[in-house]
Amino acid sequence: MKEYEGAMDIDMDSLFAALKRVKGRRKPTSVALEEGSIQDLKKIAKKLDVPYQALMRLFILDGIQRFKKAA
Question: What is the pTM of this model?
């Protein structure tokens, strides 16, 4: 398993916002990931002391925002 060293460039305000329940409905979705990717995600989440599902949501939302800015 890949080891992550050094500071992680994660906006903690965005992370905490992702942890909060947003008013409105969320639609459950499914994403098929390789086991290694899930383990890496869990390892990063443990290091940040947050649930891995919230971290995954943050990564997805961050990717959407970056895509919108680039478009």
Answer: 0.64
